[in-house]
Amino acid sequence: MAVVSRGFGGRREPTEKPLPPGQFLTEDFPVLSAGPTPNVDESRWEFSIHTETGEAHRWDWAALQAMDAEDVSTDIHCVTRWSKLGTGWRGVPLDAFFADVETEDDFVMAHSYGGYTTNLPLDDLLDGKAWLAYEFEGEPLAPVHGGPVRLLVPHLYFWKSAKWIRSLVTQADDVPGFWEQNGYHAYGDPWLEQRYS
Ligand SMILES: Nc1nc2c(c(=O)[nH]1)N[C@H]1C(S)=C(S)[C@@H](COP(=O)(O)O)O[C@H]1N2
Ligand SMILES: [Mo]
């Protein structure tokens, strides 16, 4: 944005966005993976949502491509203290996937190809707050960054944005995922510095 504020004495200063507490800016895009990058070809990619009734909702690559996608510009914040501003993604909001899903559960576990898991309240995935992202800065999402498709939940620390997303399973209780079992915070709000539990 080209917004400038005229400070005392008429000096022009660019507006500075605050960072969440304890974060520093990075210009590059670090890779943080707990294991090797799984090879998930688009031709065998599938995403599913499972609820307490045992019902499953499934989408393959063609179904994903047929859905209305959004361009998202957002800041991302890693618990290891790097933040990256104005990152550009393209993806489908989770609201579209949950449109026909009925559940009484308040939480979900995200499961990735490769076995990673992370837990979130269902509400944090809805109302335009989360996406299944498949492009980064106009290019197909690179495998190391979660391609072909990753979860993008930018209002929480980036460990909640599961790379290589495979499924979401609703759950009545907030059962901890991979990093949450290893000491990370159950929720992970970067503005409240919810790093560790
Ligand atoms: N499947 C999977 N998703 C993951 C991770 C992981 O190890 N495996 N790491 C998380 C962490 S800790 C961070 S900070 C981000 C890093 O994403 P990046 O490698 O694209 O920067 O992915 C998150 N999602
Ligand atoms: Mo992270």
UniProtKB/TrEMBL annotation:
Residue ranges of the region described as Disordered: 1-24
The record's annotation in Gene3D superfamilies points to:
Oxidoreductase, molybdopterin-binding domain (3.90.420.10)
Q: Which organism is it from?
A: Sediminihabitans luteus
Lineage start: Bacteria, Bacillati, Actinomycetota, Actinomycetes, Micrococcales
The protein's name is: DMSO/TMAO reductase YedYZ molybdopterin-dependent catalytic subunit
Database matches in Pfam families: Oxidored_molyb
PANTHER family in the record: OXIDOREDUCTASE MOLYBDOPTERIN-BINDING DOMAIN-CONTAINING PROTEIN, PROTEIN-METHIONINE-SULFOXIDE REDUCTASE
Give residue ranges for domain Oxidoreductase molybdopterin-binding.
35-179
